[in-house]
Amino acid sequence: YVPCNEELYASALGMGATLNGKALSIDPSKTIRNAVTGIGANHHVTPAVVASLVEKLLEAGGNFIRNGSGALMLAYVAAGRLVGYYEPYM
Question: Would you say which domain of life the source belongs to (predicted)?
Fold first, then answer.
């Protein structure tokens, strides 16, 4: 649940995902080059690892966001707001 946006994400194995009760789907036309990728990091991952990941993503023509919540970033992938999410150690 995202209180500031009043968004309730839910999912169950084999049942898909919903946002405020409405089924979610992804946009297959989105790619690393035309959408945003979420990136996560924490104290288990060195800054060099994260920097390398960001560098490779930018070199591939991508862009990224980090909001500090891996769970929310994964919900954003399900909602089609992000093309993907990567966190080296979650």
Answer: Bacteria
